[in-house]
Amino acid sequence: MSQTELGKLVNVSQQTVTAWENNKAEPTSGAVTRLAEIFNISTDYLLGVKSGTASADKENTLTENQKLIAYSIDPDITDEEREDIMQLVKIAMKNRRRI
């Protein structure tokens, strides 16, 4: 499909489609909805939203200091044990936020 054809389907100019492709402009919410319909995909997929929420990802992300703590507990532990420690830190962080 050409930019001109897509523009006609979304009711925008070929130049607007070019601007979207070159990250010079972003489509309106209506255009995003129409693009999702045209390509039979979700608006989340089109916008690059991953499954889950950004806040859930943020909650499960350890800071560099937390990783250092997990890795420095014992230099002789295995990588698997270090991963277990990091999981425990994540669980502790999650539980702390609930209190």
Count every helix, treating DSSP H or I runs of 4 or more residues as helices.
7
Largest sheet: none
Instruction: Using the coordinates above, name the CATH class of the largest domain.
Output: Mainly Alpha
> What number of structural domains do the residues give?
2
**How far from one another are the termini?**
53 Å
The Cα radius of gyration reads 22 Å
Task: Describe the protein.
The protein has 99 residues and is an all-alpha fold. It folds into 2 domains: 3-49, Orthogonal Bundle (434 Repressor (Amino-terminal Domain)); 55-98. The protein is built from 7 helices and no strands. The chain has helices at residues 3-10, 14-21, 29-39, 43-47, 54-59, 64-72, 79-98. Helix 6 crosses helix 7. The radius of gyration is 22 Å and the shape is elongated. 4% of the residues are buried.
List keywords for this structure.
HTH cro/C1-type domain-containing protein, 434 Repressor (Amino-terminal Domain), 2 domains, DNA-binding, DNA binding, mainly alpha, 68% helix, 99 residues, 0% strand
What secondary-structure arrangement, pairings included, does this model have?
Elements: H1 3-10, H2 14-21, H3 29-39, H4 43-47, H5 54-59, H6 64-72, H7 79-98
Helix pairs in contact: 1-2, 6-7
Pfam family, one: HTH_3
Domain HTH cro/C1-type: 1-46
Protein name: HTH cro/C1-type domain-containing protein
